[in-house]
Amino acid sequence: MDARTILSVLSLVFLTAATLRYYRDGGHIVPASKAWYLVASIFALVSGWLWLQ
């Protein structure tokens, strides 16, 4: 598997984890949710950059 594919899948996994955490906390974004969203966005940006290369 390519790194770009792995990173895009991991981005979806972290985005799903952040969304589930957001709903579990009653719609409040807590620091843990922010961290999950940040990791997901970094993986998505790196994956997108790799797809363009």
Provide a concise account of the structure shown.
By secondary structure, this protein is mostly helical. Helices cover 83% and strands 0% of the residues. The chain has one domain (3-52).
Give a written overview of the molecule.
It is built from two helices and no strands. The chain has one domain (3-52). With 53 residues, it is mainly α. The chain starts with a helix and ends with a helix.
Question: Which helices and strands, and how do they pair?
Answer:
Blueprint (H helix, E strand, L loop, with lengths): L2 H22 L6 H22 L1
Helix pairs in contact: 1-2
The count of strands amounts to 0
Main structural class: mainly alpha
Helix content: over 70%
Number of helices: 2
Radius of gyration: 12 Å
Order of H and E elements = HH
Span of the ends, CA to CA: 16 Å
The average pLDDT value, as a whole number, equals: 93
Largest sheet: none
Envelope shape: elongated
Notable features of this structure?
53 residues, mainly alpha, 2 helices, elongated
